[in-house]
Fold this protein.
Amino acid sequence: METPMRITVMALAVAAVWGLSPIFEKLSLRDTSTTVVMTIRLLFISAVITVFTIATGKGAEIFQISGKTLLLIITAGLLGGIVGLFLFFSALRDGEASYVIPLAATAPLFSALYAWAILGERVTSMRLAGIFLIVVGAALVYWTKK
């Protein structure tokens, strides 16, 4: 399946935005605890996305999702929004951004493995090569820190 250019551009835009966000988070963690930064961040995001959801007419959909979907959303929020974010902010607070962020950015390596194991997605040789490069990149970041 060919990937439309629009999707590629959006994915790169995500990388650019997600690459900048931790810089502001690192700066905020200088004067504030990890849990306070998480709380303010998540409250702000919740308020904005709630207004957006209601404004776009999707508010009623919240009450129509299945129990299974709700459990999946809550699990993802627990893993990524609480556990992952707490670990990331803790590492970012105490470590150098140029070290922590690239190592945290190895998430696609784990996503690819989970997608293969849980979703049954096919991992092509090109994707394996990309995953290998992620591992090499993480190793270089790790070893240059020593």
About this structure: Residues 106-146 form one domain. The longest helix spans residues 67-94.
